[in-house]
Structure formats: C-alpha cells, structure tokens
Amino acid sequence: MPQPKYHFFVCTNQRPPGHPKGSCGQLGGGEVFMKMFEQLDQKNLWGTLKVTQTGCMGPCMAGTMMVCYPEGAWYQGVKPSDVEEIIESHVKGGKPVERLAFDPAMLG
Ligand code: FES
User: Fold this and answer.
1) How far apart are the first and last CA of the chain?
2) Is the pTM of this model over 0.85?
3) Could you tell which of 60, 74, 78, 107 is best to mutate to test the pocket of ligand 1, judged by most ligand atoms within 8 Å of the CB?
4) Which three-class secondary structure state does DSSP give residue 39?
5) What is the mean pLDDT of the chain?
6) What's the CA-to-centroid distance between 12 and ligand 1, angstroms?
7) What confidence score (pLDDT) does residue 95 get?
8) What is the per-residue pLDDT across 52-80, written as a single tens digit (0 to 9) for each?
9) 56: CA distance to ligand 1 center in Å?
10) Sign of CA pseudo-dihedral 77, 29, 37, 80
11) Do 102 and 75 form a contact (C-beta atoms < 8 A)?
12) pLDDT band, very low/low/confident/very high, at 105 (cuts 50, 70, 90)
C-alpha cells in the first residue's frame, strides 16, 4: 500500500465534564475527525490523505488539536467549519492554514 502524502492526527481525547484541563473531545474533536474523514471520502483523496484519531497532545485547552506529517505542522482550535479550508489549502494546495497554526515549541 503506498504511503499517503499527508497524515493528519486529530485529538479526540475525552475527559469527564468538569476536568480542569478540558479536552479536545469536549471541544468537538470527534466532529472534526468525522468532517476530515467525510472530506477525504467526498473529494476522493484516498492515497493522498490519511486521517487518524489520537489521544492527548498536550495543549488541551487550545483544542481541537491536530498535527500533520510529514511536515509536523500543528493546528489548534480546529472546528468542523475549518476542515474544508484545511483540505483545500494544505492537502490540495500544500499550504498549511496559518491562522490555525500552533508552535509546539510553546510546550517547553
Ligand atoms: S485533549 Fe487534545 S490535546 Fe489534550
């Protein structure tokens, strides 16, 4: 099986309500994952894009967090409504969406 050009990992970690760190699951991570997968299917990006659910990546309150390889481009605050722009700009155009960029160096 050929390697896809881009592999997005979407945090869908779910913490119980009231947890002080919050979680991407509470912020819509599951919906973001479903929208990514829906776009992959609708735009026939099989072979170009792979999307995988993942656990906590650290900056939970800035979720939904995603990271894309091979660049290691991190995204923060992703909403389902952002997904189409990410697909068009990053996956089809090779240009990550800067307004949603997260610098992992901030994690220390
Ligand atoms: S729960 Fe998603 S980054 Fe921590």
Assistant:
1) 37
2) yes
3) 60
4) helix
5) 95
6) 7
7) 97
8) 999 999 999 999 999 999 999 999 999 99
9) 4
10) negative
11) yes
12) confident
Q: Which of 77, 54, 61, 66 is nearest to 20 (CA)?
A: 61
Alpha carbon of 66 to ligand 1 centroid (Å): 9
The HSE-up count of residue 74 (CA atoms within 13 Å, CB side) is 16
For tokens 């990410």, the residue is: 86
Which tokens in the block code for residue 50? 């792979």
Ligand 1, closest atom to CA 60?
A: 4
Higher per-residue pLDDT: 11 or 2: 11
AA letter at 7: H
Residue-range domains of the chain with CATH: 6-107 (3.40.30.10)
State how far the Cα of 84 lies from the Cα of 42, in Å rounded to an integer. 11
Residue 102's Cβ-side half-sphere holds a number of Cα atoms within 13 Å equal to 21
